[in-house]
From TrEMBL:
This protein's GO CC annotations: plasma membrane
Alphabetic keyword roster: ATP-binding, Cell membrane, Membrane, Nucleotide-binding, Transport
Lineage: superkingdom: Bacteria
Domain ABC transporter stretches: 11-259
Name of this protein: ABC transporter ATP-binding protein
């Protein structure tokens, strides 16, 4: 089989490189993402993790290399069509419509599924009405799933930061993705909120069957939810494997985690 065409491989990156002028931000990065797993990119600031996310999201075009999603060459897909393929993303810096309600933000997320013609919208035909009801049902399901009922009609601008992070996650889920990209989901959260985020990620993987690709610095969250970890340094792959395997790599503790004590937190807790 060719790259990324095996049935259990959802996304495959091969020899990805990206230059910004004279800076090689990503250098020959390759990995495969299996269906149903949580796969996490770790590394210090400037390691190239978010740049890899931006390549998958089609914000950047790679200088060389290839990305395949469900066997399709993703680097040939227009950026505005990525969400329709089943890829959703959250951002480290929350990107919500602050002067809209939680419900309205999620309805905006459903826009990717709109396939109706303009004249049907004008006439508000039976098909349009049924599509609107379906959209509402899906959004309410996400609100219930993430326990956002209390906030559904609240303006985002009035919400605590931790709730906003969950709302952004909800908007991504409203698109019904097969692949969810989470860019530092614990950023700005306290310990309790980070624990809640781990709970949501586990439920998204287990109950919804969504594959998760995550960039994260919090090693407690990484060890709790990740099936595999890719450690990067200066735009290159340093180690790839289970949390325990990455922790055992001789260069990881110093390059990424600062100390052996920090590295030990990558070990999965015993059930």
């Amino acid at each position: 089989m060719s790259l990324g065409t095996e049935p259990d491989i959802l996304l495959a990156a091969h020899a990805l490189s990206l230059r910004f002028g004279g800076v090689l931000a990503v250098n020959q990065v390759s990995f495969e993402l299996r269906r149903g797993e949580v796969f996490t990119l770790i590394g210090p600031n400037g390691a190239g993790k978010t740049t890899v996310f931006n390549l998958i999201s089609r914000i950047y075009q790679p200088s060389s290399g290839e990305i395949r999603y469900k066997g399709q060459v993703l680097t040939q897909v227009a950026p505005h069509r990525v969400a329709r393929l089943g890829i959703a993303r959250t951002f480290q810096n929350i990107e919500l419509f602050e002067h809209a309600t939680v419900l309205q933000n999620l309805l905006i997320g459903r826009h990717v599924h709109h396939r109706r013609s303009l004249w049907r919208e004008w006439l508000f035909t039976a098909r349009v009405r049924e599509a609107e009801r379906q959209t509402r049902r899906k959004v309410e399901e996400v609100i219930d799933f993430l326990d956002l009922q209390h906030y559904r009609d609240t303006l985002v601008a009035g919400l605590p930061y931790g709730v906003r992070k969950v709302v952004e996650l909800a908007r991504a889920l409203a698109t019904e993705p097969e692949l969810l990209l989470l860019d530092e989901p614990s950023s700005g959260l306290n310990v309790e909120e980070t624990g809640d985020m781990a709970f949501w990620i586990e439920d998204i993987q287990r109950d919804l069957g969504i594959t998760v690709l995550m960039v994260e610095h919090d090693m407690s969250l990484v060890s709790k939810v990740s099936d595999r970890v890719l450690a990067m340094n200066q735009g290159e792959v340093l180690a790839l494997g289970t949390p325990a395997e990455v922790q055992a790599h001789p260069g990881v503790a110093e390059a990424y985690l600062g100390s052996a004590d920090d590295a030990s937190s990558l070990r999965r807790p015993r059930p």
